[in-house]
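SEQUENCE-TO-STRUCTURE ENTRY
===========================
What this section holds: a protein sequence and its matching fold, both as plain text.
Tokens: labelled as protein backbone structure tokens, with as many entries as the chain has residues.
Question of interest: how does this chain fold, as expressed in backbone structure tokens?
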Amino acid sequence: MADCAERIIGRPQITTDALRHYANAIEDAFGANVDYAMLHKLYGAPTPDESRYSPATCIGCDMKVVSGDPDPKHVSTSFVERQNLSMRMGMRRLTRLTNGFSKKFENHAHQIALYFFHYNFCRVHKTLRVTPAMEAGLTDHVWTLEELCSLLPEKKPNARIEKELIAEALK
């Protein structure tokens, strides 16, 4: 949240689900300079024929203003839920029951950075007809994968090979 707060200009409106940790994180990052609402979805009892991975039916929502004056018309978790779905479908590393699942946090962080760069700079979105970065005025063209890869630092030689080369040089 602190990283998010540093990148936002102006007063944002934020909606989260009812996970209690969000309230402290948002207050620590934004202080009183935020319009923040919490949306608690209420679920019915699961039906016996549903599998264990199927969610119960949502039977309603309870909105709670946490701070500021959030506009009730814009209190929604739909955008972030859609983004989460796009991420899960686009990165199998985030799906626990696949063989591509990453166990190391560092691998997750790298994959997410690559995904969002590609999503925003390399992928034309049907509704925009351009990339999000072009729509925001951050670039004037669709980036190629070669351009994306050119931003990566040069790969250092394998440490084992480097040690062998040093040993050979010292002979």
In short: The first strand starts at residue 13 and ends at 16. Residues 63 and 72 are 9 Å apart (CA to CA). Residues 98-170 form one domain. The chain has seven helices and three strands.
